[in-house]
Write a structure and sequence with these properties.
Helices cover 37% and strands 20% of the residues. By secondary structure, the protein is an alpha/beta fold. It folds into three domains: 3-66, no CATH class; 84-170, Beta-Lactamase; 179-413, Rossmann fold (3-Layer(aba) Sandwich). Strands 9-8-10-11-7-12-13-14-15 form a nine-stranded mixed sheet, sandwiched between helices. Strand 2 and strand 3 form a beta hairpin. Helix 7 crosses helix 13 (405-413), helix 9 (271-278) packs parallel to helix 10 (295-303) and helix 10 crosses helix 11. The longest helix is centred in the first third of the chain and has 27 residues, at 26-52.
Amino acid sequence: MSLREDIWNLVLPRVQEYRLAASDEPHVVAERCRQIAREVTADREAESLDAAGLGLADADVEWLDEQLDALLGAGPIERYLRRGDVENIWVFGPHRGVLGLSGGRQERIEGPLFANEDEMIRYVSHLATTHGQTGRRFDHSAPLLDLRLRTGERIFAAMAVCGAPYLTVRCHRHRLIRLDDLVANGSLSAQAGELVAAAVRPPAPANVLICGALGSGKTTLLRALLGEVGDHEIVCTLEQTFELFLDDTHPHTFAVETREANSDGEGEIGMEELAKRSLRSGADRVIVGELRGPEAATFLSACGTGSDGSMATIHASSPRQALSRLVRYCLASGLAGAQSALIQEAAEVIHLVVHMHSDPRTGFRGVHTITEVLGSPGDRFDTHDIFGRRQRSQPLTLLGRPRNPDVVERLAEGGLDVSGWPAGA
């Protein structure tokens, strides 16, 4: 048996014994486990040097660190999760990986993360059973895995249905973000920031729909807008997986997420069920992380039954497409009425649509258009762009002051007088 294996056989029971007895916060337990490992390693290496003149090589120390990382954290990807600039990790089989960094940059992972495909599958299976919020399976009978780690990262993995095992990890680096931060990085202009802040503040907040492509910054903007929510308000957040983390900062948050079935096929709770129940929570606002289907009908109902200031994100390439998709989701739910009635209802209760845009060439993500909903003459949405970028590379500029009297009044109650803004074209 090699020295490093001998040391690990001493470290493992000591660490496991401490973990079973510990009651501290996870990060405190992990740090104490690392300290125990360092102490055991130093003592055993000293004994080996005295007895046989044998010590640990750098590769041995790295191997021991990897074993401990696999036990306490996320194994071979743990080192990347600790980096503050890593937003996404993609692993294409055991020997090829890419990091998605803040600002849209990419960095290739040097060297293989796993020895072979079997080792990669065993690793993901280990994560599924030990590091998720609920235990899951990842094998030939369950070849797709969608999992949230206890530390908040989102994991998707696949095997058998693809050529080589695949793993992606989405990290949430900007839990605490304000509108001022988005103004500072150019995602918003200062004037546009004032408008959206006033729009979502109490006492008469507007209902806002945020649209854009995948990775365009919809959730980041939603987090920033939630920073304007009053401390006294009760907020219900509904998500496929926790990404808003409002309960970190807001005292009265009821945060719920969907739950997949366990390995026995039981216990599934879908977004539609959560959305229905949310109307009974007594929340002042209902926030939906992403509208994907039948829950859109419940969101629309919440906007129209007193939950002013409700917000949601939706995948769409323009404000008009976002509104049309909202209506289509409601029709698909089978619980709604005629399309014309839904269009009229959506036009009455959705006040603003914010369209996000990302540029893969530069990594820039920001607001492309802020649009108000004026009505629905002829069963078509009548909208007006308040702010926009005349070209994608140009700054966000005022196109014309709000025209909807309801929006103007809500902005005034939120502390913004737009009567002196130019009317525009």
